[in-house]
Amino acid sequence: MLFDQWLRGRLYQTKRAGLYRTMRTMHTAPGSSVIINGQQKLVFSSNDYAGLANHKKLIDASKEVLNECGCGSSGSRLITGNTAWHERLEDKLAAFKKTEAALLFSSGYLANIGVLSSIPEKGDVLLSDALNHASIIDGCRLSSAETVIYNHIDMDDLEEKLKETQSYRRRFIVTDGVFSMDGTIAPLDQMMKLAKRYQAFVIVDDAHATGVLGENGRGTSEYFHVVPDVMMGTLSKALGSEGGFVAGSQELIEFLLNHARTFIFQTALPPANCAASVAAIDLIETQTERRKKLLSHVKEIKSCLSHMGYTVIGDHTPIIPVIIGDAQDAVVFADELMEKGIYAPAIRPPTVAPKESRIRLTVTANHHWSDIHYLIDCFRRIGKELNVIS
Ligand code: PMP
């Protein structure tokens, strides 16, 4: 009773701060349109960039292994959970990322925490981008190394901080490859040069870039033709299922297998899940038109909304933030979109800076051109009604 009262009090504070969260229930499989609260909505907020989450090949591969191996993996990889499917997927990921080896984690979140809590030691420093994902922030908090934040993708500031941290034993630059709220791409080419000049290591979180960026969808390393020391990725966005991974040298993978607590102490992914991801990588490698279609959707939306007078930020990625400004205006805008059958959330402080509230659109290869044009038309009509554009 006392316990619940205390929690109720804390929830009241959360509500008063405007930070109270609720969930929407999807009543259909993931796709470009879903049923929410009994109504069909076009989804412009999914991470299923390549449109594979509901692909027949992933489902069939998964079903087959589900029948063969059952639902769960029964233990951690180091005890009873390791199967040929885990190893097959790791080989596939290493080949896809063009690295010596790869290691699976149960999620991208846990992959970041595993890397950051195990590799940097006391006396080391982590240089972390101001807009890095929560899983990197939490990984830094769990690390024995200190953390220094540099301004978002500001290479001058990073260099300044590299100069200021020369007394530390080792320096690690840690960055998202594509930033989840701003859609910006980390300038990995410049970062690698700085790392070389100041003898630092680079850890990149390619959750939003894997299957999306680079000539073959291998991510930011391929996009910039560089090889960071640690490449983390997720299976839950463009690869359509669930799980995380780290790709890199044999030594890196062997080290994580022995020291990353989120690897050692977690139950392995279900084998059927691994089979789905093997099928997803096959599709990413063979169906290059998916990525081309996805990126042409991005181009169309960005250029049309910019021409209309919207402030559209970010680089050429499937994350398209449209700045509205005031938090309440952004909520009204998102409600109007919902009214017109489009689900795209308003993102407000503290997730983003004050006066930078936005509609965060994400686009997938599964959207039809008619969906894209309907979205653009809705932005035209709502923007004029609400005086966001003239
Ligand atoms: N890194 C980034 C940049 C992300 O956006 C996310 C997911 N939102 C993660 C890591 C975590 O990945 P997962 O969902 O596989 O845990």
Structural category is alpha/beta
Tally of helical runs: 15
The tally of strands reads: 14
Total domain units? 2
Main beta sheet strand tally, sense and closure: 7 strands, mixed
Oligomer: single chain
Strand content: 15-25%
InterPro entries: Aminotrans_II_pyridoxalP_BS, Aminotransferase_I/II_large, AON_synthase_class-II, AONS_Archaea/Proteobacteria, PyrdxlP-dep_Trfase, PyrdxlP-dep_Trfase_major, PyrdxlP-dep_Trfase_small
Modified residues (N6-(pyridoxal phosphate)lysine): 237
EC number: 2.3.1.47
Pfam families: Aminotran_1_2
Describe the structure.
45% of the residues lie in helices and 17% in strands. With 390 residues, it is α/β, with parallel strands linked by helices. The protein has two domains: 22-51 and 288-385, Alpha-Beta Complex (Aspartate Aminotransferase, domain 1); 56-286, Aspartate Aminotransferase, domain 2, CATH 3.40.640. The strands form three sheets. The chain has a seven-stranded mixed beta sheet with strand order 3-9-8-7-6-4-5, with helices on both faces. Strands 10-11-14-13 form a four-stranded antiparallel beta sheet. Strands 1-2-12 form a three-stranded mixed beta sheet. Helix 2 (56-69) packs antiparallel against helix 12 (271-286). The longest helix has 21 residues, at 288-308. It is globular. The structure holds 4'-deoxy-4'-aminopyridoxal-5'-phosphate. The site of 4'-deoxy-4'-aminopyridoxal-5'-phosphate has 14 residues, from helix 5. Residues 40-377 form the Aminotransferase class I/classII large domain. It is an enzyme of class 2 (transferase).
